[in-house]
Design brief:
The protein is of the alpha/beta class and 385 residues long. Helices cover 44% and strands 15% of the residues.
Amino acid sequence: MKSGNGILSSYGTTIFEVVSGLAREHGAVNLGQGAPEGMEPADVVARAAQAILDGPNQYPPLMGTPGLRRAVAAHEKRFYGLDVDWESEVMVTSGATGALADALFGLIEEGDEIILLEPLYDSYLPIIRRAGGVPRLVRLAPPDWTLPRDRLAAAFSPCTKAILLNSPANPCGKVYTEDELDFIARLVRDHDAYAICDEVYEHLVFDGRKHIPLMTRPGMRDRCVRIASAGKIFSVTGWKIGMLVAAPDLLRPIIKAHQFLTFTVPPNFQTAVAYGLEKEDGYFTTLIQDMQARRDRLAAGLAGVGFRVLPCGGSYFLTADIGALGNADDDVAFCRRMTIEAGVAAVPVSAFHTTGEVNRFVRFCFAKSDATLTEALARLNKYFG
């Protein structure tokens, strides 16, 4: 019997599904998958429900509803000072992963090199390879995840089509500084390349930091594809509403890919997200404060158990070093044992790398209810003593 696609078939089941399945099987508290608990704004959810009743419930336009595209353009101006034409520079996608697929399939030609920074989100490599691209990997090293500038510069070549940049980063929580972004922007300009910017955690930056889109740096307005996520902004990850902003010439080939992948996304969710993006500043400030408090609570609890917790500047996730626990397991075996025996699930950070050299760090999600965090820490304290 003939086999399936060799590239995609070479990948196992995504680590998030594996961890969540193991957690369900053993009744573990799931701090692995980035699924927020109890944080959805009630008025935004109500707006989605009402939009189903009001209709229409048919295909919305390929690019997204005019209401949401206008709201995205207003959001870009409000938060980042970007002047965006909603008609020619904004597209709504099936989640941020859909936006990534649209951008990568739309822009990559066979043999194009795409630069990525490890640790990296697990969907990047399969999409790039299936699109015919050649990944060029540059590793950030724990515990501080400093940008290795010399290695990054050496990764660029005449074959470089783009860099895929995730900030704030999953899983390590790194928020790139203005100076780091300017260094990256200079490399992109010097090599006449593009930047695909996964910025889904843009409204989840902590300790007074500010999210800076690479698109706002000098000379980058027409070179960047900026990707945002309503799921992260409004804690409704199941809605799968992504938002993509790019200059018209850059967006056109991405639209071609989008029309043959998902074509469009549910109109009622688009109506609700458009409503949500117009919320007052207090909503966004409170979101940061609330999530930062959850981060601090989990970090203190994990440190009390014996983990060495690494800094987290943004996102949903804390990275912890398991070495301080005197454990001989690698991170995969440790997470499996912790799920089965301690009843708490986390994700091994080696799943975000292409080789096994980084294998003593685990990722915990803190976008959880107080009750969930309390139970998880109680179980860890009991198990690790």
